[in-house]
Specification:
By secondary structure, the protein is an alpha+beta fold. The protein is 42% helix and 19% strand. The N and C termini lie far apart (97 Å). It binds phenylalanine. Phenylalanine (PHE) binds next to β9 and β10.
């Protein structure tokens, strides 16, 4: 009996895992285990011997069972300890904020621009980004061989082989929406159209996709003076900086006559962009009086109506207003950049707030 106890208690102590422990249990106290075989021998004993051996065997069985239970609990604890070590987790890490993003400066500025022009009676229009060649060029007095087509670095859509119509283009400016809006509303009319435009160009101030806002006002007695007032009024309201300085430069666009480009005084010193100071000028828009052929293409009689139009770079004015030096970072989707330059949902445009 003592030999049996020593043997099995030793094996139980040495069992390395629950599988080994189960094997020991079957060999010792299972139905065909050694203790059961000994119990069967009780039948061949004298009653006196049985009175001693019976309780002793039962006690041995209990002792082995409880040693197995204790060892099993020990193995489970060890397994848990091992898991806790392996699946280590740093609970001191900061939690993940539920909202990662911010409002992109382009969205914020689009809202601001829209609010200011809405105050001046301009409605918001839209047009397709994959545009018909006619709307993007011909209707704007840019015929097939015109050098302006090459200058625009246009992206052309693919055509099926054998289809000889001019390919669609990714609109190179928001000006095609002038035509679409004239067709939709007739005269008089006032609209702005913010949206994406595309040109094959890439450096610190150019990206292949960027944003413009088109503006157009058509009425009976509209002149260059109205255009100038409107743009100056806009810049004062938008930039909210004393001493904003604009420069109207004579220029040329096929769809306006006369034409002017507008630059704003700024400085790039030390990699930061500042407004209203310095010796640099940043071009922010092109503008002019709408060409009679353009009014005609939109179905409006140029003998009865005149209009002015402008196209302004939204990203450009966002860079200027918020001091963002590199345009390319606008479209990198870098969360660190967005956290730095982005806006919260409650930072409503100044005009809306007022
Ligand atoms: N479409 C011109 C551009 O993209 C800007 C412009 C719009 C100029 C309207 C004059 C009038 O450069």
């Amino acid at each position: 009996m003592d030999d049996l106890r020593d043997k099995y208690l030793g094996q139980i102590r040495d069992a390395a895992d629950e599988g080994a422990l189960e094997a020991v249990r079957l060999a010792a106290v299972g139905k065909k285990g050694e203790v059961a075989l000994k119990m069967r021998e009780l039948g061949r004993m004298t009653p006196e011997e049985r009175q001693v051996a019976g309780p002793a065997l039962n006690a041995l069985k209990d002792e082995i069972n409880s040693a197995i239970a204790a060892r099993k609990a020990g193995l489970e604890d060890a397994a848990l300890d091992e898991r806790l070590r392996a699946e280590w987790l740093d609970v001191s890490l900061p939690t993940r904020a539920r909202r990662q993003g911010t409002i992109h400066p382009v969205s914020q500025v689009t809202e601001e621009v829209t609010a200011i022009f809405a105050d001046m009676g301009f409605a918001v229009a839209e047009g397709p980004q994959v545009e018909d060649d006619w709307y993007n060029f011909d209707a704007l007095n840019i015929p097939g061989h015109h050098p302006a087509r090459a200058e625009m670095d246009t992206f052309y859509m693919a055509r099926q082989p054998g289809d000889n119509r001019p390919p669609h283009v990714l609109r190179t400016h928001t000006s095609p929406v002038q035509i679409r809006s004239m067709q939709a509303t007739g005269a008089p009319t006032r609209m702005i159209c913010p949206g994406r435009v595309y040109r094959a160009d890439y450096d610190q101030t150019h990206t292949p996709m960027f944003h413009q806002v088109e503006g157009m006002a058509i009425d009976r007695d509209i002149s260059m003076a109205n255009l100038k007032w409107c743009l100056e009024e806009f810049c004062r309201a938008f930039f909210e900086v004393d001493g904003i300085e604009l420069r109207f430069r004579a220029s040329h666009f096929p769809f306006t006559e006369p034409s002017a480009e507008v630059d704003i005084r700024c400085s790039w010193e030390g990699g930061t962009l500042k407004l209203g100071e310095g010796d640099d000028w940043m071009e922010i828009l092109g503008s002019g009086m709408m060409h009679p052929k353009v009014l005609q293409a939109g179905g409006i009689d140029p003998d009865e109506w005149q209009g002015f139009a402008f196209g302004m770079g939204i990203d450009r004015i966002a860079m200027l207003k918020y001091g963002i030096p590199d345009l390319r970072a606008f479209f990198d989707s870098d969360l660190r950049w967005l956290k730095h330059y982005g806006f919260g949902t409650l930072q409503v445009p100044t005009r809306h707030a007022g």
